[in-house]
Write a structure and sequence with these properties.
This protein is an all-alpha fold and 254 residues long. 61% of the residues lie in helices and 0% in strands. The chain folds into two domains: 94 residues, Serine Threonine Protein Phosphatase 5, Tetratricopeptide repeat (Alpha Horseshoe); 93 residues, no CATH class. The longest helix has 22 residues.
Length: 254
């Protein structure tokens, strides 16, 4: 005989032996004789995550390629614990490691983690990551993620429109024609639409076209230099790497 789903009316008092309304099994349905209720495990507390990550790092060689990912995770956990200095230290080590290994996508993620620490140089860290994300052919999603950090930080400023145009440009340039390319294009369209609304109050296609042309968002030769100028201001002359030397490492097919 097939087991029937368990149904409970939470408005009625439970009969003896029935689960109470606030019981986690009150909403469970059994669809077969061997089916078991899946109980979601509680999230691991950030303090415990921190301990586990630190222990993991202690057992890793300094050159272990997995080390950067663990450091980024540690930075994010420390940021949640309001341990900004420790979060910054972990993310900065990951950033420097990734740059040394020419892991540009990893460096971009580490720079995003630096921004999330809210330490005094957070915006400087963000700027370093954006430069790498635009300069090197990393995954489009990683570029979009860090550009959106800048957009959210300055939603009503012209730099938000510039960053949105850059996101759209990168999707067209690197997205490809496959499913991931379509996702990149759709995400870029979402970013552009949101910025058009928050920055320009755009409500229809006609208004969008006007806003788009006024800000020259269809011309990379205009908006990319504007992005570069903004990054220069955010860094204030304190670049952590030699950009000319890094440009020499750009793949020829990029």
């Amino acid at each position: 005989m097939t087991a029937q789903p368990l149904n409970f009316n939470l408005n009625d008092p439970p009969a003896p032996g029935d689960p109470s309304a606030d019981s986690p099994v009150a909403s469970v349905e059994l669809s077969g004789p061997k089916a078991q209720a899946e109980v979601a495990e509680p999230p691991v507390p950030y303090k415990q995550q921190r301990v586990v990550l630190i222990r993991g790092l202690q057992h890793m060689a300094l050159t272990d390629p997995r080390r950067a990912d663990v450091l980024i995770s540690l930075s994010k956990v420390c940021a949640e614990l309001d341990e900004g200095a420790e979060a910054w230290e972990a993310a900065r080590e990951a950033f420097d490691m990734c740059v040394m290994q020419e892991n540009w996508q990893g460096a971009t993620r580490a720079a995003e983690a630096l921004f999330l620490t809210n330490e005094p140089q957070a915006l400087k860290g963000l700027a370093h990551g954006i430069w790498l994300a635009v300069t090197f052919p990393i995954e489009v999603k990683a570029s979009h993620d860090i550009l959106e950090r800048l957009i959210n930080e300055a939603a009503h400023d012209d730099i938000a429109a510039v960053a949105a145009a850059t996101a759209y440009y990168l999707a067209a340039l690197r997205g490809g024609d496959d499913e991931s390319g379509k996702e990149a294009h759709d995400n870029a369209a979402r970013i552009m639409s949101n910025v058009a609304w928050s920055h320009g109050g755009v409500k229809d296609q006609e208004a969008f076209d006007i806003w788009f042309r006024i800000h020259n968002l269809d011309d990379p030769d205009t908006f990319l230099p504007l992005l570069s100028e903004s990054l220069e201001k955010m860094v204030d002359g304190d670049w952590w790497y030699d950009r000319d030397a890094l440009r020499a490492r750009i793949p020829e097919e990029a």
